[in-house]
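Dear Dr. H.,

I hope your travels went smoothly. While you were away I took the liberty of generating a structure for the chain from your last submission, since the lab meeting agenda had it listed for discussion. I wanted you to have the full record in hand beforehand rather than looking at slides cold. The sequence, exactly as received, is reproduced here:
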Amino acid sequence: MNYNFNSNKMFFYFILFFSTMISISSNSWLGCWIGLEINLLSFIPLISNVNNLLMTEASLKYFLVQSIASINLLFFILMKMFFLKNFEFNKIYMIMLNLPLLMKMGSAPFHFWFPNIMEGLSWLNCFILMTWQKITPMILLSYYFFNNFLMFIMILNSIIGALGGINQISLRKLMAFSSINNLSWMIASIMISENMWMMYFLIYSLINLLMCMMFFMLNIFYINQMFFSNIKLIIKLTMMFNLLSLGGLPPFLGFFPKWMIINYLVINKFFILTFIFIMMSLIMLFFYIRMTYSSFILNYIKLKWFKIKLKNSFFSLFNIIYIFSMLGLPLSTLLFYF
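The corresponding predicted structure, in token form, is as follows:
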């Protein structure tokens, strides 16, 4: 994909940003729906590429899935406006309203489209889909709460995200299942408070950004590409730190928000939920460690056609990534003293 940010692309990024602002600041459900539609129509031109069939297929799949979710959401919104004026907190209606939102952000049990679409995207679009596109549905999900239902969704996300990623060789699919697993933590954090969710989301987005930037710079899409011997050791170390941080291993930065969520869940006696979260995080860490450990142990010969040439601008960028990865160790410890 061409990464030159021309005026057309910048316009669509601008619309993408403001459509989210429209949705989360709207005081009516119809306004939220309009924001979601503008968001969809601005993201499709960014992911479609005439020269790449995978990207075109991904954009079509994304459009179909989001359209189905939007139709359902609009139907339930209109149903509320005309038929359920006196039944604002009807439990069945609240579940029905939550389902299209869960579908929009790729949550289990509507997660099947998410890894398939991720497979056809560039790393920049993968990052947007894993982070920015989840903001609006998450905020809207926090308006209506039905705890037992959302608890079931959290457990489902946690299990599917962990078990789905075990047999993957594609890094994009692996990151997609990682995102599904992290979604369960995000729903738990927004159940606690919006500030908690904001902190979790920012730290998760930062780690995701570092990972996607590294994969983009090295042009890596599959696990076996990490085993090439001409990838420097320092790059492999940085990759390992970021992956372990994403999995939530202490004392990395990614552990900090998870620790706070676990603390809250234990205080409020959600022991089974906490146990499932921790067990599934261990499975996530297992395949992160399997990836990085293999890349240290296995070294393929330097192939003639395989060259990694990082430009000077990339080198300075890589140094920034490395500093962030290393700072995660002391930062996560120091944050508890403030």
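Two observations you may find useful: Residues 7-337 form one domain. The chain has one domain: 7-337.

With kind regards,
E. W.
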